[in-house]
Amino acid sequence: xxINHEIVFTGxxxxxxxSLIRRLTGRNVRTGRRPGVTRxxxxxxxxxxxxxxxxxxxxxxxxxxxxxxxxKDQIVRYLExxxxxxxxxxxxxxxxxxxxxxxxxxxxxxxxxDIELFEFLHDLEIDTIIAVNKMDLVDVGDRDHALDExxxxxxxxxxxxxWIDMIAPVSAKRGxxxxxxxxxxAKSRG
Length: 190
Hints:
The protein is α/β, with parallel strands linked by helices. It has a single domain, classed as P-loop containing nucleotide triphosphate hydrolases (Rossmann fold, 3-Layer(aba) Sandwich), CATH 3.40.50. The protein is 37% helix and 18% strand. The protein is built from six helices and six strands. It has helices at 17-25, 65-82, 98-107, 113-123, 143-153, 178-189, and strands at residues 6-11, 42-46, 49-53, 86-94, 128-133, 167-169. Strands 2-3-1-4-5-6 form a six-stranded mixed sheet, with helices on both faces. Helix 5 (143-153) links the parallel strand 5 and strand 6.
């Protein structure tokens, strides 16, 4: 049976894309502590769906700038070439680092790569879920505030809970992925 639908996982290096895929599918997906382990799209088939782990973008420790740019171009090309079959994208972000990174880019007068990718996926009409990973590292009492701040950086008006069809707080490390699994299940049915 041919695969007609695909879910792509994208995000900065070391935000937990591969770990989330491993948790969701139970399949062994190559992961690493250092950025840049995934350097080309990695595919697995799961429940008649193609799951694609795209390389991380942003700073890739130890990789020459030319190779980093080639990886970014490869991500863009892959999304453009396959947008017709991509059911949705899961843009994985780090719950603790995301706002700081976005604010740093904004202060330099630059569009943060994360925001640029989110808008690019929207331009390609690819439905996108924001998987806010590493929520276990955010103090329990600060979680709603942190998620509101993240929503705001994506130009989604707080409170974040009005975006529960788009924002999934998760912890791949702890196996708390139910919000993402629920959204992916709904998208695959829908």
